[in-house]
Amino acid sequence: MLTCPAGHASAAGDYCDVCGLLMEAGEKPAPAPEPTGVPCPACGEPQTGRFCEGCSYDFVAGGPVVTRAAPAATVAVPAPAVVAPAPAMVVPPPDSEASITAWTATVFADREYFDTMRSEDDDVDFPAYCPERVFALQGAQVRVGRYSASKGIDPEIDLTGPPQDPGVSHLHVLFVAQPGNGWAVIDLGSTNGTRVNAAADPIPRGQAVPVRSGDRIHLGAWTTLTLKQDTPS
pLDDT of the chain along its 233 residues, tens only? Predict the structure, then answer.
């Protein structure tokens, strides 16, 4: 940094950038006038230095006057229009006659079926106690059988004991949903077959057989599933 004759530190080498004095003068010029607070002849702002803070008027040289540009006009931007949301579509409730009803399957040990189907060569005993279990028929398909981790079988209706019916296969039957909220049962190739309502002959394997509320599906030696369809209230 250079020092001007008035003692100001200046980055410029020709004229002091603080007071405007010639940096190398043969005779020391008079220092710039100190701020006096007199009003600027151009804009009326009080003097605080060489240049007016209001309009940049040079109090030492007497000008030039730098006029400020007029501020740009403010353009009012209209607020966006508020669009009311469309009313939600109201779906009327279905008729009670067409309402979907729930189906369940109650599993129990059927003594009558056991006595009818057993033979003298059978070594299977009827269980002393077997609590009833109720399963919901939901979705498109419901598998019935016994859980097996090694085979990767986890049926929706798991008939694993105790007590265990040895005549129930790991994948015994499949309930399949039908149009109109009905169901059909399919024997999946079980070892001991599947009978509906204690029929003498088992249902054909791999064939969908429609069932109704109140029907009894017999599996194994003594396992029976009673189907029930809840009626609309």
Answer: 677 777 777 777 777 776 767 766 544 455 555 556 777 877 777 777 777 766 776 766 765 544 444 455 555 656 656 555 555 554 444 444 445 789 999 999 999 999 998 875 578 899 999 999 999 999 999 999 999 999 999 999 999 988 999 999 999 999 999 999 999 999 999 999 999 999 999 999 999 999 999 999 999 999 999 999 987 65
CA–CA distances in Å: residue 10 to residues 29, 31, 51, 57, 134: 16, 14, 17, 21, 98
- The Cα 60–Cα 83 span in angstroms is 63
Q: 3-state DSSP helix/strand/coil percent for the chain, to nearest 5? A: 5, 25, 70
Q: What pTM was estimated for this model as a whole?
A: 0.57
The span from the CA of 2 to the CA of 8, in Å, is 8
